[in-house]
What does this fold into?
Amino acid sequence: MSEKKILDCVLLIDDDEATNFYHTIIVEEECDSVHIQSVKSAKEGLDYLLGKGDYSKCPQPGIIFLDINMPGMNGWDFLAKYDELSKNIHERAVVTILTTSMNPDDKKRAATIPAVKEFANKPLTPETFWKVVNENFA
It folds into this structure.
């Protein structure tokens, strides 16, 4: 197992603004010293990771909470592009899929993607948040 990282930023990627708002509240209540960035598309999530535009001075996330069912570029498309990003990003971040999907094939597919450390149903709960933190961060 690799060395545990320090969590200082969480990236929320979900096309539903209300979901991002709720998940932001959960993270804030559980961990008040972390930067939280929410974006409404997978493309915007990639832009954030690459430091494009308004995100040029933003911290890199330790956790990425990713929805898979989004219009345009979905979560699976994001993960394919994420796989092409630099090793530094991969070493720093862990991806947790948060979804309303009840399709067992989605969970099986996620299990084949090394970057995905957790697959959970929405909404984000304190238990899911701490499971990811405790397994991956100091």
The radius of gyration is 14 Å. The CA atoms of residues 107 and 119 lie 7 Å apart. The mean pLDDT is 93.
